[in-house]
């Protein structure tokens, strides 16, 4: 028996036609954290609440975080 409580998956995380879960799509594509988070926000932005703008902005923020990470990573790899 699992020590974790079973919670039903909310419908806004599951695709309408094929039943794909947002997190499993991200896992299958092996997306980095911020890109995966942005993707899940975009996949559910029209379904979770009436106004998708907040979730689109959250996705944009996470994409900016990923760009900052990549810039920092590139800067660290430059020879002195």
Describe this entry's structure for a reader:
Helices cover 60% and strands 0% of the residues. The protein has helices spanning 22-28, 33-48, 53-77. α1 (22-28) runs antiparallel to α2 (33-48). The longest helix is centred in the last third of the chain and has 25 residues, at 53-77. The mean pLDDT is 89.
Oligomerization: single chain
Query: Mind describing the biggest β-sheet?
Result: none
Shape: extended
Count of helices? Answer: 3
Topology diagram in text:
Blueprint: H1 22-28, H2 33-48, H3 53-77
Helix pairs in contact: 1-2, 2-3
Keywords summarizing the entry:
80 residues; mainly alpha; extended
In a nutshell, what does this entry contain?
The radius of gyration is 16 Å and the shape is extended. It has 80 residues and is mostly helical.
